[in-house]
Fold these 2 entries.
Entry 1:
Amino acid sequence: MAVLTRRQVLGTGLGALAGGMLAGCATPGTVSVNTAPTIAPAGGEKITLTYWAWLKDLQKVLDVWNAANPNVQVEAAWIPGGNSGGYQKLYSALAAGAGPDIGQIELRSLPEFMLVNGVVDLSRYGANDYASRYDPTLWQQVSYMDGVYGIPQDSGPMAMFYQPEVFQTVGATGAPATWPQWAELAAELRRLDVYIDCFPLADASVFAALAGQAGARWFRAEEDGWVINMTDDATLMVADFYDQAIDKDLVQIGYGAYTPAWFAAASQGSIASVVTASWGDALVEGVSGGAGKWRGAPMPVWEGSGFGSSYLGGSTAAVMSSSKHPREALEFAVWMTTSQEGIDAMISNSGIGWSPARDFIGTSRQGGSEFFSGQAYNREIFVPAAKDQNPDWSWWPTTQQSFNILSDGFRRKASGTTLVESIGEAERQIMTVFENKGLTIRKEQA
Amino acid sequence: MSIRTVPAASADDGAGTSEPAAPPRRPPERSAPKDLSSGSTRASKIIVTSILALVAIYFLVPVYWVVVASTKSTEDLFGTNGFWFAPTFSLWENLRSVLGYDGGVFVRWFVNSILYAGVGGLIATYFAAAGGYALAMYEFRGRNLVFGTILGGVLVPGTATALPLFLLFSQMGIANTYWSVLLPSLVSPFGLFLCRIYAQETMSRSLLEAARIDGASELRIFHTIGLRLLTPALVTVFLFQLVGIWNNYFLPLVMLSDTSLFPITLGLNNWLSQVDRLPEFYELTTGGVLLSVIPLAIAMIILQRFWRGGLTEGSVKA
Amino acid sequence: MTATLEPVRPRKPVTKPSTGRNKATARAPWMLLAPFLALFILTFVLPIIVAIGSSFTKVTRSGLFGESGISSGFAGFSNYVQALEDGNFTASIGRMLLFGAVQVPVMIVLCTALALMLESASAKWPSFFRAAYFLPYGVPGVIATILWSFLYIPGLSPLFDAAALVGVTPDFLGPSTVLWSIANIVLWSYTGYNMLIIVAQLKAIPAELYEAARVDGASTWRVARSIQLPLIRPALLLTTIFSIIGTLQLFAEAQVLMTVSPAIDSQYTPNLSAYTTAFAYNDYNVAAAQAVLIAVVAFALSFTFLKLTNRKSP
């Protein structure tokens, strides 16, 4: 029977092969919406837009808009955050032709959606008229090749949250101002069995943000294709710095920030601080018994080079190619991200990150916070941080795969491969990924 | 217990009489091979039962943990001993928030799961019975080809077909609908395999001949005689398929993006994936897990009695 | 199982009925098979065709984002080459082979031992134990993993408090241990189910055989070795085959644990790899090649196993 079956199966397989050739199934994402004619506004007719996002209680924000715009109703549907399932859903819905009108897409992932023709070029619907309302660095990160592919929705300027009492146990009166000082303090803390922070080997986005702060610019889009440069001085300096920090056991690499293990350690004071984005405040507030024990401080800097801060995380409201009403979707997204009522509703209901609007950070973020002992850390720390950013950083169309390649390399740190080595190796692999997709890429000539 | 090699009492009595000094009632446990062979001395009873009990603890601890955890608030979940209840009992509160979250979406997921598994299991069993019966009771050209191909289907991992099936369903426009999960659930190659073997072992063609002479149509013979004789195997196939669909995760994950179509597995994982940003989802997830485990536990305890039919008489027959 | 794989010979030649009946009898099996076959073709055969088709297709983009044209064409074996050159994908297959080589035998031995103990006269409350062991089977893999993940997380799990009493700090989610933490979840989920199949088979052993063994004065061990084990062999084959296939299907456990264990990458198991390649990297064609490779490996393993056991059987 086994022999018989094998032959039969083989026969079926060959038939299948021939059938497959004939069927020539179209691969999803190969048809562009951005060369098709623009879609006219609905013109007074009542329409309903869907918005897929992982924001908490988003519907309450939408209800504010819905009350004022009876003809353009927006409905929220929850998806898991980004690459933990949300994008997979968006991609598969796009492939199935059943995507939403608007999707929450991280800044870094926007080019990946562009690659599969998943998002609408909003400049064709007048998005550039609104550019002046947004933070210029963020607007830069949604603009590619004269187009605008998403509306910045929130971002994460980086700074540091620390426990002054824990720092004081080794005699430090404030937060370290530079990275070398940070490393010195970390070594002091280790004597008391306290870690200053974690370094996530499994999530390369943090490393990318740190490199960005130091002045790295991994990708450039040129006329003739992509230019990659992940082994510049800034990146290698940061990698070497963390290589040493890990070798000296200065940072915790067993778990990342905001994991259950981290919360337990933070509340016991065995994690002293965290360099994180502005949206980390809500998470730090989740440390049990932490009220009054935490403060904000600027991110440590590199003396003589780089920038004061960096962006970690941040997302856009992107109009998906499946939308039948891109113009209305754009208008709604601009309202949500730049109007005072939109921003305040997003903060109070969904707890979004830093507002992308140029001149309004949100009413509730003006004053001090009880948890942080009344410190007005948003105005004191994050407003300047948001202005001191690397303006040249640009994302690229294989971000997730590149980050996975990087973190696969970083994981080998345990077996002795340095971060510096794995970045060089990752750069080569990422170039292969580009080439496999048929994209042109070359290494920056020094 | 259907098999008892030796009644316990007789072995003990035999040992007792041979030793005059032994106490009149229960003799002390002896380690003589003869006693061991009976498999029922007190010593072996205690050893075997305590091993079984230890293993039972292993199987039940996670369930016990979730029962305890679902009575706790998120703060207590991290702050108190996981194997004992916290001073504040927040079970009802947690369950209320599970059932009330997002307009009762949990109930919806539960109903979806029942729908996918129940309807899918029933129809799949019927189709598998018809197919297996046809392959067992009729000689026809291509029979071995058909059976061989289907047998190949048993060996193909279901997840390997899910991705291409998604692409196919996308083009047919039925991805992200109830059908996209239900249709693949209606096919059970293993069920057909079981039914065929069971029919072969238990049914004689002469019975069918008799029915034919009575003038019954072929389909009628299957529905009246065939299905009835196949019943023990059908129960097994149904249960197998029911649990298979209920536990399936990959297929709905690939197919569905609309949360209102989710089965409970997908829904709960949806909640779990939010805990890193919103720790209150720990309560929802533990409460939801508890609610989904309880009915299954009851069902498993009841159903394990029926989990025999086709498996013993059919497929595993040497 | 082995014997039943033989092509079935009719017990007696099919009688030639009258001509009118003849047509009906010829049509009947196809009518009965039709619904199953239609769905089988839709959900097994066609997807395999699609997978094979798209695994030989390549999409090429030009421009920075493919804005100046996207074309697709015949790729030859380049997608397969790419899949096999992807160290993470091949590593995931190797990882599953290692996993299967350890987990499947452990589970089969455990479930056999449990079944024999339950069916021995020495067990008290056998139906309680049977139900307790079988219960996890009704807990879907995802939910089982959620359950266990809570027990693996430091700070949340009471297991750590228990381990601290004896001075050990376990790490369930580290790079070298997490695979076995997954194995534990699979073991927990399926041992009871496999045990039940074996119990069912044991119950089918005629009582006379035991009686004869008793008369010969055979020990419990001997009864197990020379009566019970040979007679439950088909059940063992069945459970082993399903376990091998199940190992290659491993997905939910790894995907759910990924959120709590940094050691699990997005291509930890072959299926996770195909899923990530398709839906996170948007490379449907390479993903299709991976799916085909997974199926081929499952096939090869199952056939090899059947061949080996066939050869050994008398």
Entry 2:
Amino acid sequence: MIRFDAVTKRYGPRAAVDAVSLEVRARRICVLLGESGSGKSTLMRMVNRLVEPDSGRIMLDGRDIAGVPPEALRHGIGYVIQSVGLFPHWRVAQNVATVPRLLGWEDARVAARVDALLDLVGLPPDRFRDRLPHELSGGQAQRVGLARALAADPPVLLMDEPFSALDPGIRRELQGALRDIHAGTDKTILFVTHDVEEALLLADELAVMQDGRLIAHGRPGEVLARDAGPAVRHLFGEQTLAFHRLGTLPAAGAARPGEAAAAPLLPEGATLKQALMLMLEHGTDQLAMPGGGALHLSDILAAA
Amino acid sequence: MAEARSRLLTDAAATPSPAVAIPREATAAALLAALAAVLPFLLGWLSVAPNRLVSPRPVALPMAAAALPLGLFLLCCLGVALLARRRALLPWAEAVAGLALLALLATLGLGAGAALEGASRLARVAPGAGVWFSALALLLAGGCCAAGRGRMADATPTRFLAVALPGLALLVASGLLDPLSLLKEAAQRGPELRLALLRHAVLAAGALTLAAAVAVPLSLLALRRPRLEAALMTLANGLQVVPSIALFGLLMAPLAGLAAMWPPLRAAGIGGIGAAPAVIGIAAYLLLPLAAGMLAGLRQAPPELIDAARGQGMNERAILRHLRVPLGLGAMLGGLRVAAVQAVGLATLAALVGAGGLGAIVFQGIGQLAADLILLGVLPVVALSLCVDALLAAAQRLLMPPGTRA
């Protein structure tokens, strides 16, 4: 869906993005993870031409974006940023309707779309439609920001640290909401963050950047494999790498047949990390699997 | 002793004390109202001169003739002081200050009529120094009450003006103030005065339009070109330092030269003398407030907001229309307000290069040492500035989009 071909962007002598090639497949959430200054935001902002690459090519759905006028390109790409950037003098409904109005939709269609989107992001339209941005909490504002990005039903969403400024509880709520919305809408999402937990929670694919270069790319389990390079180990924490890796592995894959009588039951779809947490919680080394079968501590150690 | 004091303190605390509710501005307003009431008696109500060129002498106010408005005036001054003690009543205090001004003028008019009885037809009565100071004190008291409502943008004493201006028009129309020398002078020069006022307004408006025609497009261009911005602001700042009379003078020679070289210009009324150098000169001073206001306004929308707008596919024109202008309107209108008031003031000097306007009357008065004539030129200038300021302040309030006011 999105393909970067040896893309480079220089600011002065320093390369903010250095010959990055990356393919994001359709309907995936690809998380760009890196510390600040690693070039992840710059790479993302090249997709909607807010930043123009010095060399290299970016293909969107098979088309070179350099040939698409920036405004038209951006109408087809949702954009969510950390500061939300709602227009303070526009009501919520107007804010959500920004792109449909730029595209010249009819009023009735816009109004129906706005209500549907507010419902989708969990804000009852009757209560929120006519509010001004300063009357919203941080979490509500970012929900509106997400609705605005989805307004014209773009196939691609770019999200630049959208939840970083929120309180941890609100952040988890919105991460959950984003997963649900993604599951229901088939969007391709490029998501920038510096938060390791958030990246592992959301990512179908993980792309790790450092100093403008792409240093690892793949499914989270692959990126966190035992042979991960020193930069990845540093980013995820030398001591916690294995623990994070457990979070990427489904418990079902490590289970053995048989019964674990009187052992705590693991919820459906749990990861090995959750399984280990449950064992620690109950002080046991065995768990019962939801569909039958058992999981022993030694299975976890073997899988990790 | 200490016990008594502490009891006093607890008593004061126990009563549901109105002390908390007294606004800060109350003291100032009360003091000004007291000054307004006392000053005419201390510094004189009226002065009479045998004719318009002789210095006037103070005379006593004929109390019997003006008892009714005098009583009302003193009552109103007391009213201002008392009403200002409650924040909720401040608007009323402001309006009553306007009423006090009207009562002051009515007292003056009736008193002047009585003082002129039996005098020669050439005799002139003018307000005494006390009346001028009293009027100033009342205006300040009104301003105090207006400021007490809180925000700076609302500090124009609109209620004071709403009472005082129509009332003043009524007083003038009723002929109550006719005995005053200022009104006599005005009656004699009626058509001349109206023409000067109109010309003054045209000069100021013309200069404002010319300055806006330069400042607005240049500010829009300078928004993304730092070097143009530096040049524009250096020019606008530099012009402020040139004394206005020198600037008018500097413009005369090149404009005269242009008109000589290119006769159609002369036919259009452009030359070294007259409206052309005046309008250009005034406009030069308006560049700074206009350009500074424009640029500040255009930068009101924070960069993240512009980024969000761009990311959604708004082009620069849409960003200007939907974000920069509505969010920066307050600052832009603020600049326009400063420039408009400055234009009205500077247009007074246009008379120096033969452009006419109210300044012509002022300079004529200075030449003749006739104080009434000077006032006849100056008072409309003051009134015009106040009106322009109030009008643009109201526009500023009305046009600000709702989300930006909070």
